[in-house]
Amino acid sequence: MTHCPTSAHTFTGREEVLTTLEEFFLSGYAAERMKTFLLYGLGGAGKTQIALEFTKRFKQRFTAIFFITADQEDSIQGSYFDIAKTNGVQDAQSWQAGLHWLHSHEDWLIVIDNADDPKIPLSKYLPSCDHGNVIITSRNPDLRDIANQNMELSDMLPEEGIQLLVKHAIKDLHNISEQQQKVAAKIAEELYYFPLALVHAGAYINRQQCLFEYLDRLGNQREQLLSKGPQQPKDKYYYSVYETWNLSWLQLSPDSRMFLGLCAHLHYEHIPRSLFERGVKNLSMVESPLGPSRAVTEAKLILQRIATSEMNLDNMKLDDIMDDAASYSLINKESGGYMFHPLVHQWLKDTIKDNHRQAIEGIVVLAVEDISQKDYKFLQRLSPHVRILQDSANSDHVVRLAVGCRMAWAYGESGRANKALELQQKLVEISERVMGEEYPDTLSGSHNLAVTLRVLGRTNEALVLEQSLLETSKRVLGVDHPYTLNTTQNLARALGELGRTNEALEVEQSLLETSKRVLGEEHPDTLNRTQNLARTLGDLGRTHDALEIEHNLLETSKRVLGGEHPHTLDRIQNLAGTLGELGRTNGALELKQSLLETSKRVLGGEHPHTLNRTQNLARTLGELGRTNEALELEQSLLETSKRVLGGENPHTLNRNQNLTITLKSLGRTNEALELEQSLLETSKRVLGGEHLDTLNRTQNLAVTLRVLGRPNEALELEQSLLETSKRVLGGEHPHTLNRTQNLARTLGELGRTNEALELEQSLLETSQKVLGEEHPDTLSRTQNLAVTLKSLGRTNEALGLEQSVLEASKRVLGNEHLDTLDRTENLAATLEKLGRTNEALKFKQSLPLVEQSKQVLGKDHGDSLTRIQNLAITLRNLGRFHEALQLQQSVIEISKRIWGPEHPSTLIKIQISKRVIGSDHPFTFRRIQNLSTTLAYLGWRNESLELMNPLIDKSIQVLGENHPDTLYYIKSLKLLESFSN
């Protein structure tokens, strides 16, 4: 047929498309060649109607318009023959005569409609001349190669879609009510504003007069409604929505139909190609830890069809399968995967029913079999598809548990604890219903749930669950069963996290004795429990006891497992950490250097454990004041991490963060800020704005802004962060509480101290309620509140709080715990602030603070030296300058001997909660400055200045001239000089 029909009189909208066609054909674009425009997309998207509407609006602009139906080659050839005959070519012998006529005439327009069959060589039927105009409508996007310009058609704009529906549904358009308009809008939205669906829905509503009932019918009988075409279509298109796509379905290869059937059970968007790639790679893996599965068996049969002989994905085979479906626009290809129009996806589900469901479940099982934290991008893309499968009533419980366990673990590893919890709760429910509450896998699932609750800060709930699990395990499996012993360890961990550390210690001591009796003293589990006990002793401030246990444990581990066993290497790392806590940082350094060399030799320089140990070594170098060496090591580590793991891997991002800390310690805070801003943007893009790591990086950035004197920006960031933290983690999560504390600190620095006080008082009440009044974090927050009260001049109130918190600290943590020693120091400082200097001195002397510090940490530990320095300052304030001088000189000598004369870290105490104590040494340079001040008080002006001048030179050399400490020393020198004059 060459006569061009007209568009339907109900044609609506599509003005953007018509404008594009007008500009393409009727402007000067490509004036010296034939213009070809492809309109492609799903059947029913309105391609033909748009082409016909264009010809109707602009028919005066063309010398002739021809309409060619291109569903068969015979039809195309017949149409060209008609063109020749209609235009007076009497001797036309073949269809090419029509092409010849077009070559010799200009400004004509051909509409080549329904050129859907990819087997028809359409380019053969296009005139090869430098003039003329062609519109092609097709479901096949591959025809873009033969067109000058193209546009994909799908859904209408909402306003247009509603208008089209109303035109077909309601005869009297002038009297449509507001309620009818609202219902029509909901129907149009439910049909995704897809043209053919809207036209047929409107016709059905008009015929049945059921506008207000249609949504219910659509919900209950969607397949029947969308399979039903109009009896007397106004545009002469008789096929229903589903019939239109069924015509395309019949043209597909069996393999294409099968893969579309698989995808029908997933979410319609962002189906990852890697799902099939990973499935093929894992074909040889065990199908499920829960027993044989028909789903995995079916999956293997299908995946073998797209696998090479080496059991890798046959990319060309999969490309052919998906290209076949895409040639009819039934599926769209996107970067790294595929997606469907929602209605097409629904049609597929209605068409294939439950066919291929088990196979796709089996493919997912195989794909997640070896999932790990490094697969976080795949995990992100797979999550909505797993959720669809998990929510299905027809899903195999074996499959749901197998997939769910792996996915929940991966969620937890990648910081998505809320998602892990949601999935684990469903898994436990399924396991209890199917296998029973006392089945081992049910108990294991409940344990995983408890771990996630702890991660989310819901430790009291975790504790209740762990206690219940322990009782069940004792009853079902026995007191000495390995699972019961593991559950006991988990209970101890929960107690420790709740600040009930003495109770945790008792549980762990009893557990260790049982483990020795049941498994033997040298069993790997017994050794692990020994390590856990050492960690708990460290948390209680009994660091020397912990060190002794770790020494013995390491020797046993070397003898039993070997010096290069992974567990032995981990224990060396733990021992080094304990040495660092005791201030024996040089010993820790030696141990870590040796460990790193062993790790490189045994595991390789690029193994994840080796990379982690490199980071630990860099941290120790920084603690020793060898910050430039630490920086160099971290920069090299970051490059390796980028190369081995990728620039956006979570571990690589963490190493970026560590690098910013080192830069800040060197006074290069602006560089650190720039890196943190870039890191935060990457974290948001890769992990998401609400990922735990992203939230932590936001806090780090706020702290850096505060250090740079930009507290208003820090405040804005922290306020937004706190709201996000409350929404994502809950108002009582430990991280949320910490962020509230940080916000209060920023308010204080902005002079908004009363607001800070109000926030801290509320925070303390929450902490007391959630964690308990004697939890270490609660005690730290009480101390912070005392600091704020002092800044408001309410020093007597602060004193009362500090006395209370010190007593609690002694009772809960013990006299020798580092936090107890710190709080003793703080109380003495408050007494001095109140002018009660003699009481402060007597207090320090009656509580042998310095001696305790030496006993617990060692006389050379940075904190011990801090306390000696503070005692010297107290003596100086009392006018006992000679005694103060003697103490300060001893501190300087020790500091130089341990860290060297250029170490920047000996006296300034970083005020952080010491739940996990680090080696935060005071600054050697600051000690020299304090000594200089004491000399000045003694009248030894020249000696004082002789100390300060080289100190400033060293500070510039080591820290840089713009470092805050360097600037402070310069200011102190000017004060001394003015004092001398």
From TrEMBL:
Molecular function in Gene Ontology: ADP binding
Domain of life per record: Eukaryota
Name by which UniProt lists this protein: TPR-like protein
Organism: Lentinula aff. detonsa
Gene3D superfamilies, A to Z: P-loop containing nucleotide triphosphate hydrolases, Tetratricopeptide repeat domain
Family matches, as InterPro entries: NLR-like, P-loop_NTPase, TPR-like_helical_dom_sf
SUPFAM superfamilies: P-loop containing nucleoside triphosphate hydrolases (SSF52540), TPR-like (SSF48452)
